[in-house]
Each structure stands twice: as C-alpha cells, then as structure tokens.
Specification:
By secondary structure, the protein is of the alpha/beta class. Helices cover about 35% and strands about 20% of the residues.
Length: about 550
C-alpha cells in the first residue's frame, strides 16, 4: 500500500494518526463480536433516537442499555469500554481527584451506579473508539486467502525503502499496522459518522457535517506548514487554500463526502513523532547505568523525541538494557509515553509522572515507575516484576510476572497469560504524592485485587492468576535519595498484608532478644555474626539480589 510523502497532495497539508487512541485506546485482544461495523451503525441510529441522552453526548445509562440488552455484552465489559474511552479524554487533574473521592465514599453498588449514571461521552468519538477495537480482530478469511496456517492480523504496509515491516500480532505500538487499518477502513469510518449524524445530501453525493469532521479529529492531527505548527483536522480541512480539495462548501457549511475522503487519503503520512521516528531519528539518551559484567558490557539503546515533538507525541524508548541498573527522574520523562523493550535481567527505575508505559518482551527484570496517567501495559514478558501507580493495568501473553499495583480500575488480564501474581502497591519515593496529584491519581479507591479477565482462554475453575499470599509479601525500598514529602505508601497496605509484616517484625525482634539473652561470649558472638553474614551473602547470591545491590553502586565507586 503506497504511503504519501510528507509533502502530500492535499493542498500542502500533512495528516497523521494520533498516538493515544491506538496505543492507549485499542485493547490488544480480539474485540467482542457485537462491536462490528454492522452493529456500530445500529448503535449510531439508536443513540440518535434517544435525544439528548444519546446525542451529541451518550450517557452511560443509554450505553449500558445498548450494550447489555441489544448486544448481549456484560455490564462489566460495557463499563470497561466506557471507562477505556474516558482514559483518552483530557480532564484537569483536580477533576479526576474529586471524582476519585466521590467513588471512594461509595458504600455499595447502588451508590457506585448512581455516580456512573452521571457520566457521558462524546457519541461520535465513542463510536470511533469502539471501531478501533477491530485493530486486533483475527481474520479467518484473510488467513485462508494468503495461505497462513494460523489466523493472523493484517500485515504492515511496505516501508519507504521497499522492505515490508513483516510484523503481525498484538504489537500495540506497530504504527504501520495502525496506518494499514485506517487506510483500509476510511470509507467505513466516514460512513459510520454520517450514520450517527445524518446530514443533508444530494442524489450524487452525501454531505459530511463539520461536526463529523471535528469528531474525526479524535484520530487525526496534522500540519500545513511543514511541521512548524500543528492544527486539528477541522482547522486544516477548513483552511481557505484547502477547501477546494477537502470539499468544504461555505454555502452548505459541510463537506462533500467523496472529496473529503479523497483529500484525506492524499494527505496521510506516517506520524513524524511516533515510535518509529523516535527510534530512527530521535535524540540518543546517554543516561548512566551501573552493574553489568565488566567494562565491555553492551549499553542499552535509549532514545527520545522530546527535543522536538509536541506534548501529545512525546516518546522515550528503552531497549536491550541487560544486566544493568537504570535509575532516572527527568523532565524528559514527564508526561512521556514510554516503551521498554527486550530488557533482560535489568532493574529500571523511572521515577517521574508518565502518560503511558508499554513493557514488551522483557525477562527476569524489575521495573519501577512513577505515577502513570493512563495505562501500564505488559506484553510478552516473563518473570518480570512491575511496580506502579496507574489508572489502568493490562497484561497479555506473559507468564510468571508479578504486578504491584495502585489502580482505581480493574486490572485487565487479556489473552495468553499464565501464572500472573497480583499484589498491592508496596513502595514509595519522596515525590510520589506530588506526581500522583499531577496526573490526577488518588490513593483510593485501589482495586488491584479485582481483575477482569477478557478473552476465550480464561477458565473460572483454573484461573491464570493468583493474589500474592501475605507470607510472600515484603515492602520494597527505592534506594535513592530525593527531596520530597512522601514518607509512606499511599493509602497504606491492606489489613492482612500489614498484619503479616507486623508478625514478621515481631519474629525478628524475638530472635534478636533470644540471641541477646543467649549468654554468648565475645568470641562466640563474633563467630555467630560471621556465620549469619556468610549465610546472608549466600542467600543474596542464590536469590539474585546480590546483582541488584551491586547495580546500585555507581561505576568507579569504592568496592565496585
């Protein structure tokens, strides 16, 4: 599929897909079968028939009625989609915190339902969000046509150098797949918007309202001056020099469907600030790491586009950080979308407020991040521990992973997981409260222990997850000095884990008292201390914690 160059043929306008709707909004799991285009068109018509409760804003009661009674979608899935769209909406942090306080005060389901029933979303944009779930739809027909043994998703388009990207599957940051999906479905997307916002037309053409084009701006943004400034889709489509190509008429105050679709296709380019551009042309980061197996240890690959990308496209990519410790708090990370990829036996601390983080194909690693405004997604990881306060967690294709979570939404366990351990958030650092406030994240409610399992491979009698037992629970100390006022775990610990820690502390104190009262001589105490230290060092080596501690010593420091 041919991709337009940056110059474009749409009146000097370049358009590209926004990152968040695909990266944060589209769940990497086959969508519910009733979210096909056929049913979405029915939803559009029905919502419009419900008056102000359905259009231009769709209230949650109407959506729940549609989902549960018309589409046979469970109430928990209906709320998951509604809540997922809300992640993409920009609200002041104070509004998020105020709502969290109201939810935390709810004493029963009736009170929670009352709050939910007050919520509403932009109808047209919500329909687009539901349509985006088709990105991860498995196509049996296409697999039969191309001769694949297994069902697969559409392949990425041909790159500018003639090579194919060669990627399929649930790669939620595969921009080529996203572009392919959008190009293949432009006509259906525009038709869906028209269905919801019926507008006047002639026998030869349909008219597209300005409201529809404005809603489509949920997916697209662009520039008309070679990336010097960025504008919304509606602003670009209505520029004086562009109107003849975009099909806008000042008489009807609307767009020609055919002209607009053609103009849209001609203007599409790859995102100049996406992950691919960040990796290929971004600024290389020289963040120091420690640990490793000697001076010849290969450094991880780190890049960012923060020096030139707008806030809505700021990325940091960390790849192949192996057998090293990386600890960073930086303005580069603030509000960034972070991708951590193929890191093995690593300890990574990113102690800044983030927009989103994707952790992919990592093994035997510990990843601790600050407050995350939207989603932490783990994909294809093994024996990896993730610690974060985030609005939503999702995990797919992973095994033997442990998630220490502070989250106000149900963690999403998608397909392909095995032996996932869920645990409460168990750490803090001095700036944590400040970072949580910045992203609008409160300490309550925290429903880390109420996962929502999605997909066909979940079995009620044989779940692929477990809650961490209190006997296996320990708090986690972040071993870095910072200035700030957070001195305890936000929201505290659940009672049974707090009780287990107290009991363990009493056992330690009792053991110390026994040693003190043992009547050992000075030589015996020294011998006993040596024995204990040797046992401790052996345990550190066997458990792998010695490498973690060694990684905290800066290169060249005494004893390193």
């Amino acid at each position: 599929m041919k991709m337009t160059t940056m110059a474009g043929t749409g009146g000097g306008v370049s358009l590209w897909l926004k990152v968040d709707p695909f990266y944060i909004g589209a769940l990497p799991v086959p969508p519910h079968p009733k979210l096909s285009l056929h049913y979405l068109r029915k939803i559009a018509v029905y919502a419009k028939s419900k008056g102000k409760a359905g259009f231009p804003h769709l209230s949650y009661p109407v959506w729940k009625h549609i989902a549960c009674n018309k589409l046979n979608i469970s109430e928990e899935l209906a709320w998951m989609y509604f809540e997922g769209f809300d992640l993409l909406c920009e609200y002041p942090p104070g509004d998020r915190l105020k709502l969290a306080q109201q939810v935390a005060k709810c004493k029963n389901k009736e009170q929670e339902d009352f709050l939910r029933n007050q919520a509403s979303v932009d109808t047209l944009q919500f329909l687009l969000y539901l349509f985006l779930q088709q990105v991860y739809k498995i196509s049996l027909r296409s697999s039969l046509v191309i001769g694949d043994e297994w069902p697969s998703r559409s392949k990425s388009p041909i790159a500018s150098d003639g090579r194919t990207s060669g990627t399929t599957g649930t790669k939620n940051l595969d921009e080529n797949s996203h572009m392919t999906f959008f190009q293949n479905n432009i006509h259906d997307i525009l038709s869906l918007l028209i269905e919801a916002d019926s507008y006047a037309g002639s026998a030869s053409d349909v008219l597209l309202s300005v409201q529809c084009v404005d809603a489509l701006g949920f997916l697209l943004e662009g520039s008309a001056d070679q990336l010097k400034t960025f504008k919304s889709l509606k602003e670009l489509a209505m520029l004086q020099q562009v109107q003849s190509k975009s099909g806008y008429s000042k008489i009807t105050l609307s767009f020609s469907f055919r002209s607009f679709e053609t103009w849209l296709r001609n203007c599409l380019v790859s995102n100049p600030h996406g992950v691919i551009a960040c990796v290929s042309a971004g600024q290389r980061l020289a963040w120091p790491t420690s640990g490793g197996d000697g001076d010849g240890m290969k450094r991880g690959k780190m890049a960012t586009n923060a020096n030139k990308a707008p806030k809505s496209c700021k990325f940091v990519v960390l790849s192949q950080v192996c057998k090293q410790t990386l600890a960073k708090t930086s303005a580069t990370l603030v509000d960034a979308r972070v991708k951590i990829h193929r890191c093995h036996h690593a300890f990574i601390y990113l102690l800044s407020p983030l927009k989103y983080i994707s952790i992919e194909k990592c093994r035997n690693s510990t990843i601790v991040v600050g407050a995350v405004e939207t989603t932490v997604h783990i994909n294809g990881c093994e024996n990896t521990r993730v610690v974060a306060a985030a609005r939503r967690y999702s995990i797919s294709g992973s095994n033997l992973c442990t998630l220490h979570m502070l989250t106000p939404t149900r963690p999403l366990l998608l397909g392909g997981n095995d032996s996932i351990t869920l645990a409460p958030y168990h750490t803090h650092y001095p700036l944590l409260n400040q970072h949580m406030a910045r992203v609008g994240l409160a300490s309550h409610p925290n429903i880390w222990d109420q996962p929502l399992c999605i997909g066909p491979d979940h079995q009620v009698d044989n779940p692929n997850y477990q809650l961490m037992t209190p006997k296996d629970f320990f708090t986690f100390v972040i071993p870095f000095d910072m200035v700030g006022d957070t001195k305890e775990i936000p929201g505290g610990l659940p009672a049974m884990y707090e009780k287990a820690l107290d009991q363990r502390e009493k056992e330690i104190q009792g053991w110390q008292q026994t040693v003190k009262e043992g009547g050992l001589t000075k030589a015996q105490r020294k011998q006993f201390q040596t024995l204990v230290e040797n046992k401790f060092q052996a345990w550190l080596a066997e458990s792998g914690h010695k490498r973690e501690l060694d990684g905290l010593v800066p290169p060249g420091a005494p004893g390193k």
